[in-house]
Design goal:
heterodimer; A: mainly alpha; four-stranded mixed sheet; 23 helices; B: mainly alpha
Chain lengths: 526, 142
């Protein structure tokens, strides 16, 4: 490696003010434009988290029996907020939005010492417009908050060079601990964090720093474990391992990493490539080490992890946005400088041309690359990322509203007499504010795959609970164990919406499907 | 100061863009006044194609007249612009003729139609920005 040169860069003195203005504006715009409270579902696992929090909030004793393959912190916090502000779907969805903003600020902080205000803006532009991010930032899901607060933790531990500040290390450990208790995937930050600390402090001091870090981490994880209704290693760790092993040999393309998920953001990829190439000269080693290690870890996880869900692409976005901002910032500055320096009045250019050291455009090769790359990055951002934001926001805005759905209204009608409701389409249960039996709140495909539960088990459990409402969703479960005959004998089909069927217990005297349809037509004056 | 190969390459690109523009204009006019069917030579024959042809012809002339070190890049982006015109004209006319340059690339790379659209939009924006850079530099030079 050649001698490192530090690029003179104006320190972003007003960065705090910039964030203080821009971040709330983006936050308010999304929060006001999208139906975060009334949307039936935003994102794949949105319903799981809402139902988990509802159960913990209303019946903490039953929550002990809940099958939950994720740590409890997010659920516990959401449940607590439900008690304070009401059972609003917007609560965890706004938390995701706050987390997305925190992620932008944290990634910006990691390059702040080496870059200017332009780069900080670019971090936000690249990260928030990346494929899947707007959707994840509005969904009550765990991935984005977990990664966001883990990166915030890394930002806390990053101070460039200078004396060790012990409180930062303890705080960093505590924050990673909290992030890991949202979702264990937050631990993906660890190798990058260790490399960053080694670059900042050297091996010996980094070892001591990790001891302090462990104090914060251990204290928070232990506290949350005590607070949690359960801490079952079988559910928290082994269930993931079993699913991974079951899928390793299976020919299931849906569960594998797809490289095109990263290529959905060509602007970020091109800019990140430039950032690694050019930033090598001036980005500080701790930040560079953090980014490169994060990228490598994300790639290793993508290769090894099964199932690899599309939203794991977020792991790549952290380092790519970091390097992307550096690369795009360099290219844009160089291109603007090139435009501002007229060729006809530039003696240096003539001298370079005379000596043969000219690139594609009559300027140096670096400048030539920048002049072509800066418009390319902006163009790819407009062509892909902006359209992506527009389509994801449009999708969220056009999401089904719970209040406007007849089947949800029917479920709410019987909600006061309902102790339990089995809902195969779990988001409907939260929309009607009815509880799903704890063992059946979280029923992902992975659970069936790992052999934790079978369709027959689901049928038997539903029959044991005898829930007041059953919402079937056209899936072929629950089935077997005499479920179909039991259902028709004990329940009345009272509403239907496409493939979804609402069955209500006969003891509640529900109207038959035909009667309800007639009532609706009469209400419409038909 | 630019090398001779740069100049020759640039002129060739300008001529190519100009020819494509002229071909589009010819297709539209021939369709309107003669018995030549729609989509002659695989070129859509509607107002947009006429507009695109005129723009390309104009840009070709402009390109030949420019004396800027950025001209090579501009020449490349002209070609990108031509692709965009082609695609927009096709979308407008509903013609099934695939984009001659990006179509095969799309099939080879396995890109979706949506990705092709996004790529074309990116090329258009790229052209615009490179053109702006060149224009800004020219203005300062005068």
């Amino acid at each position: 490696m050649g001698k490192r040169t530090i690029m003179p860069m104006s320190r972003p003195a007003g960065a705090g003010l910039l964030w203080a203005l821009v971040v709330p504006v983006i936050f308010a715009a999304v929060a006001l434009q999208c139906p975060l409270n009334s949307a039936l579902k935003v994102g794949g696992d949105d319903g799981y988290e809402l139902n988990k929090a509802l159960l913990v909030s209303r019946d903490p004793q039953a929550a002990v029996r809940m099958w939950n393959d994720q740590p409890w912190l997010h659920t516990l916090l959401t449940a607590q907020l439900f008690k304070w502000v009401g059972e609003q779907a917007a609560v965890p969805r706004l938390f995701s939005l706050v987390s997305a903003m925190a992620l932008v600020v944290a990634v910006g902080h990691l390059i702040r010492k080496d870059c200017g205000r332009l780069e900080l803006m670019l971090v936000g532009a690249l990260l928030l417009s990346a494929w899947n991010v707007p959707g994840l930032a509005m969904a009550a899901m765990l991935e984005l908050p977990a990664i966001a607060w883990a990166v915030v933790a890394a930002a806390v531990a990053y101070w460039g060079y200078g004396p060790v500040r012990w409180w930062r290390l303890v705080l960093c450990g505590a924050a990673v601990g909290a992030a890991s208790q949202i979702k264990w995937t937050a631990m993906i930050v660890m190798p990058a964090l260790v490399v960053m600390l080694v670059c900042q402090l050297g091996w010996r001091k980094a070892a001591w720093a990790l001891v302090l870090w462990l104090v914060g981490f251990g204290a928070v994880v232990a506290a949350i474990a005590v607070w949690s209704p359960s801490f079952d290693p079988e559910q928290l760790f082994l269930s993931h391992l079993k699913a991974n092993m079951a899928l390793q040999g299976a020919d299931c393309a849906a569960a594998r990493f797809r490289f095109d998920t990263v290529l959905q953001n060509p602007a970020m990829v091109v800019a990140a490539g430039l950032g690694i190439w050019r930033g090598w000269k001036w980005v500080s080693p701790p930040a560079m080490g953090f980014g490169l290690t994060f990228l490598t870890t994300a790639a290793a996880v993508a290769v090894a992890q099964r199932p690899w869900w599309d939203y794991y692409v977020l792991h790549f976005y952290v380092p790519l946005a970091m390097f992307g901002a550096v690369g795009a910032g360099w290219a844009i500055r160089a291109a603007l400088r090139f435009a501002a320096e007229a060729a006809c009045s530039r003696p240096k250019a003539d001298a370079a041309a005379a000596s043969g050291a000219v690139g594609l455009l009559g300027a140096g090769h670096g400048t030539a690359v920048a002049v072509l790359a800066a418009p390319a990055i902006v163009a790819l951002w407009v062509g892909f990322s902006v359209l992506n934001v527009v389509s994801e926001l449009a999708m969220a805005r056009s999401a089904k509203r719970a209040d406007q759905m007849d089947i949800v209204r029917a479920m709410r009608e019987f909600a006061p007499q309902t102790r339990w409701c089995f809902a195969a389409a779990h988001e409907y249960a939260f929309a009607a504010r009815v509880l799903i039996p704890p063992e059946l709140v979280v029923l992902p495909w992975k659970r069936f795959l790992s052999g934790n539960i079978t369709k027959q088990d689901v049928a038997q459990m539903v029959m044991r609970y005898e829930p007041e409402q059953i919402l079937l969703a056209g899936y072929d479960w629950p089935k077997g164990a005499g479920f179909e005959s039991w259902l028709t004998n004990t329940y009345v089909l009272t509403d239907r919406d496409g493939l979804r069927e609402l069955w209500v217990k006969r003891s509640l005297n529900p109207p038959e499907l035909g009667t309800r349809t007639e009532m609706r037509l009469r209400a419409l004056g038909l | 100061m630019e090398s001779r190969s740069h100049r020759v390459g640039l002129k060739a690109a300008a001529v190519l863009v100009g020819l494509l523009g002229a071909l589009k204009i010819y297709g539209v006019v021939a369709h309107q006044v003669g018995n030549i069917p729609d989509g002659v030579l695989g070129i859509p024959t509607n107002g947009l194609a006429l507009g695109a042809g005129l723009i390309e012809l104009g840009l070709s002339v402009l390109m030949l007249g420019l004396l800027s070190p950025i001209r090579s890049a501009q020449g490349l982006s002209m070609w990108g612009f031509c692709l965009v015109c082609w695609r927009v004209a096709h979308a407008w006319s509903g013609s099934a003729v695939a984009c001659p340059c990006l179509g095969p690339a799309r099939q080879w790379l396995g890109l979706s139609a949506a990705t092709e659209e996004r790529l074309l939009l990116s090329i258009a924006v790229w052209w615009l920005l490179v053109g702006l850079l060149a224009w800004a530099r020219e203005q300062l030079c005068r």
